Amino acid sequence: MMELRSIGESDGFTFWLAQPEDYDAVMDISDNIYGGNDYLPHRYHSWMTEPNRVVILAKREGKLVALESGLVVDEGHTVVVEGLRVCPNERGKGVARIIQRWVQQYIRQLYPSVRVLRLTRNNDSGPEKLAKFTVLGKRAILSICGKAENLDSFLSILKAKLDPEPMLTVLDEVQLRGLLLDSELGSRLQLPGDAMIVDWQPLQPIESNLEVFQRRNLTWLADRSVSPTFLSVHTPPYPVPYNGGSLRFNIDLFGTSQSLAHLALVSHLERVRGKIQGVVWIFVYMHRSLWKGMREYCESLTDVVSFRDYWEQLILERPF
C-alpha cells in the first residue's frame, strides 16, 4: 500500500499522495503558519476525499518536509493551488519550488485539460514571488477580533449605524445556479479577474463550480435574487490553532455599495452568533473602495477590535 502512494523521486525527495494518517506529521510542519490562523487543521481530512483535488507530500529520508495541493475547477480548465507549507528548518532552500513543480507535473498527467493555474496570496508576498504571475485583481481585507461575549454589543452598535433602506435576500440553490449563469455578473459586481473568490479560492462564476460551492456549506446574500448588484457569502466559522484554539470567520463581499457592505457584515454575523464561542477572528474581503468606510463603520467602544491595518488579497494567474 505504501509503495502505491509513492509517485516519484527528485532532488533527494520522494513524493507521496497524502493520506489521512499523515495528519499529525502535516500539523508538525505547520506550526504557527498564518500566525495561528491556519485553515488546514480543519480542512485536511475533507481534502482527502474531495473530488478533483490532489494533495502531495515531499519526504526526505522518510521525514515529511513539504505539502502542496491543487483543486481542478472551471470545467477542468483551471487548477487552484493552495496549502503550500515547508517544515521550518527547510525554508528558504528551494523546497517550495521543487514540490510545486511535482504537483503541477502530476496534475498534468491526471487532468490534461488544465490550461490555467490560479492562486491567491496576500500583499506580503515579495516581488520575486509575484514576477511569474499576472495579477488579475486585488481586494482589501478588514481584520477584526473579539470574544464571543462581546459580539452582541458590537452588533448592537453596528445595527444602530445602519441605513434603514437596504435589504438583502438569502439565495437558495436554484437562485444561486441562475446567478452563476448570468453572463454579466462579473462586470456588474466588478469581480477581480472575473473570478469569485470565496475563502481564498478563486473560481469562475459558472454553473460547473456550483458543486464546489455546495461542498463548502456557504450562506449567500444578495440585494436581489436576479441581476444583483451586490453579493456576499460566508464560510461557517471553523477552528484554528491560535492561542490553543480559536475560531476563524471569513466573509467575502462582491460589489461596491458601502451601505450594503455594512448590512452584509451585520447579516452574516447575526447568522453565526449562536455558533461562536471563545475568540473569533473575522476577515472581510471586499472591493478596495469599501475598506476605509468599513473600517470606520466597525470602530466602536467594545472589545471587538481591528488587529491589522490595510492589507490586500491578490488573485494571481499564469498559463499551466
From TrEMBL:
Residues 13-164 form the N-acetyltransferase domain. SUPFAM superfamilies: Acyl-CoA N-acyltransferases (Nat) (SSF55729). It comes from the Eukaryota. PROSITE patterns: GNAT. InterPro entries: Acyl_CoA_acyltransferase, GNAT_dom, Hisat_C. GO terms for molecular function: acyltransferase activity, transferring groups other than amino-acyl groups. PANTHER family: LOC100145250 PROTEIN, N-ACETYLTRANSFERASE 16,-LIKE. This is N-acetyltransferase domain-containing protein.
